[in-house]
Amino acid sequence: MSTKPKVADAEKAIIEIKNLRKSFGTNTVLKGIQLDLYKGENLVVLGKSGSGKSVLIKLIAGLLKADSGNIRVFNEDVTRIDRKTLDRLRRKIGFLFQSAALYDSMSVRQNLEFPLRRIHKNLRDKEITAKVQEVLENVGLAAAINKMPAELSGGMRKRIGLARTIIVDPEIILYDEPTTGLDPVTSDEISALMLQIQEQYKTSSIIITHDLACARKVANRMVLLDDGQVYLEGPPELFDAATDPLIQAFFRLKPTTISAPTNAH
Fold first, then answer.
1. Do residues 158 and 221 share a domain?
2. How many CB atoms sit inside 10 A of residue 49's CB?
């Protein structure tokens, strides 16, 4: 059974967010967010739909532009850097989207080779093949190397998405609902795989999720967003022990968003 790796350096913030604000028209989504991600930790961000969770990681990655505030990633302010610097910074950041975002016209092998060739342009074919085999073995799908995405179940697609995320050796991983649409058994396997990746690749991660079982399993620290602000921040045990009605309603009583088990591994 996987256990949570200890945070490598709880004093070293590799992402620092200060006074972050973002609106869409008259809808203010983030209202002065203050948040840090420390080296080696898994930080889970919780909140009801529309609370700004996905907007937050898109701002961190520079996919959206903040209205005001600062986002420092490895001491580079994402809100102020030029495109060339942002592109270089993004090479240190891996993404896992809800859909796994695989290219349907490419085999598993080609899906994994594509980002590797784009980022590490000097690798030889032999090195690329070895890296593809390594990450597939690490996610337990070495036999799927020549399959097409249409041949994969939902759980397998998530695993291949994870393999494609780690193949470029990111220092930070941003997970957007990594277990959405999966049955409970497969969700638990993906959560265990996330812990394995944290331990093996020494990653630091921000994990957006509605899946409270996943949150409890993978989080070193959790944050609950409410009304565009950080409502509570701390280890999972703090949330379990909370007597605040909002925390109890969300964290203890809210069901996890799990669909029927049609996408088993």
1. no
2. 8
| DSSP 8-state assignment for residue 66 | -
Give the pLDDT confidence score for residue 259 in this predicted structure.
42
Are 4 and 218 in contact, with CB atoms under 8 Å apart? Answer: yes
Q: What is the mean pLDDT of residues 127-142?
A: 94
Both 86 and 189 in a single domain? Answer: yes
pLDDT at 161 over 80: yes
Tell which of 124, 139, 169 closes a domain.
169
Q: What is the pLDDT of residue 242?
A: 87
pLDDT of residue 141 exceeding 80, the answer is yes
CA atoms within 13 A on the CB side of 222: 24
Single pTM value for the model: 0.87
Shared domain check, 64 and 106? no
The rounded mean pLDDT for the chain is 88
Structural domain range at position 112: 100-169
198's CB contacts (< 8 A; 6+ apart) are 4, 5, 40, 42, 205, 218
Strands annotated E in the chain? 9-24, 27-39, 42-46, 68-73, 76-77, 93-96, 172-176, 204-208, 221-226, 229-234
Are residues 42 and 18 part of one domain? yes
